[in-house]
Write a structure and sequence with these properties.
alpha+beta; 12 helices; Cathepsin B, Chain A; 41% helix
């Protein structure tokens, strides 16, 4: 996800350029969502996206708006990722990138916190996140730990000290809206989030459909498994979710030429459309994954579906780069773009159509 960070920096510097062309889209589906936030100069789109997704879940289930702490999640994900990296003797992936399930896995073990209890800023003057030096320092701790013949437990002391220095210490308890919570009681009582409600889907032919597999992308450092379904089923899940008021945490490719920031739209190139006709949608999709044309370089939050005056359908997508464009931080990905460039999605299992859930063995 390093190229995503570079893109963010460019967008921050060039944001006035994008406030030009605006299309009057017609709403098809629209779900409740919280305000757009800014991940700053970090590779934490996975945390911002999934926290935004969970904020929409809370709006749907409790009809109240919560501002969840993305950096609480990032803090513990870095710890989990570091332990995994060392267990594999430095042969795994330790980077800023991650997946939607990283948030769910942290919640299972540690719970959630509101932004007001843990912002990830070490001073009141700090307004934007920047993890460049922190990640360099954390990586150095792990590389130094691997130099010895025997792993010393002191690595974790140094690692936590760096996290505390850059992000701040996580409080054991905090007061939110007049009530005292721990991160676990806040998750259960205030947020009402059950991490077992969320599942991930992908669509690739190198594994059998309606089974699960460990998706082979670098940011799946935890080796979590995804349900594998045909692309028609994956988009059916997305549409059924939106139709019923659920949103989607989306993982995919934003590096294509058809991903145009000036218009805030993502469409396939003419050549890609030719390949779909020649190979078929599923086969071409697979070929782009096999040859690295499709990469999992960014996560975003799909909150609705719209159409333009020609009837072309787009998925309304909430980014985490602040209100940088003419749509206040939202953009629109076409159906064909979604079909080819989606790597994976995370949804509430209740959003999955019954026939697809049955084929996958989801209960």
């Amino acid at each position: 996800m390093q190229k995503t960070i570079i893109t963010v920096l460019l967008l921050i510097g060039l944001s006035p350029v994008f406030a030009q062309e605006k299309t009057d889209f017609i709403k098809v589906y629209d779900t409740k969502t919280s305000p757009v936030k800014n991940q700053g100069r970090t590779g934490t789109c996975w945390s911002f996206t999934t926290c935004s997704f969970l904020e929409s879940e809370i709006l749907k289930s409790k009809n109240k708006e919560l501002d969840l702490s993305e950096m609480f999640i990032a803090y513990y994900a870095y710890l989990q990722k570091a332990e995994d990296y060392l267990r594999f003797h430095g042969k795994g992936n330790f980077s800023e990138g991650g997946q939607a399930h990283d948030v769910i896995n942290v919640i299972k073990q540690y719970g959630l916190m509101p932004e007001s209890a843990y912002s990830g800023f070490c001073s009141k003057k700090q307004k934007k996140h920047n993890h460049a030096s922190m990640v360099d320092n954390l990586t150095s701790v792990l590389e130094n730990a691997l130099k010895g013949k025997k792993l010393s437990p002191t690595w974790k002391v140094a690692f936590k000290a760096l996290l505390n220095s850059h992000l701040g210490e996580i409080p054991e308890t905090f007061v939110f809206q007049g009530k005292k919570y721990t991160s676990k009681t806040f998750c259960k009582q205030a947020a009402g989030i059950n991490p077992d409600d969320y599942i991930e889907f992908t669509s690739y032919t190198h594994h059998p459909f309606y089974t699960t597999f460990d998706l082979e992308v670098p940011d799946n450092w935890s080796h979590d498994v995804y349900y594998n379904v045909p692309i028609d089923d994956l988009t059916a899940i997305m549409d059924n979710a939106l139709k019923n008021g659920y949103s989607i945490a989306w993982d995919g490719d934003v590096s294509e030429k058809g991903f145009v920031h000036k218009t805030a739209t993502a469409t396939l190139s003419k050549e890609d459309k030719k390949q779909i006709k020649a190979q078929g949608m599923q086969a071409f999709r697979q070929s782009t994954f096999d040859d690295f044309s499709t990469t999992d370089d960014h996560l975003m939050h799909i909150t609705g579906k719209v159409k333009d005056k020609e009837g072309t359908l787009y998925y309304k997508t909430k980014n985490s780069w602040g209100a940088y464009n003419q749509y206040d931080g939202f953009l629109f990905m076409s159906e064909d773009y979604i079909r080819i460039k989606t790597v994976a999605i995370l949804v509430n299992k209740n959003a999955v159509p019954a026939n697809i859930a049955k084929k996958c063995g989801i209960k």
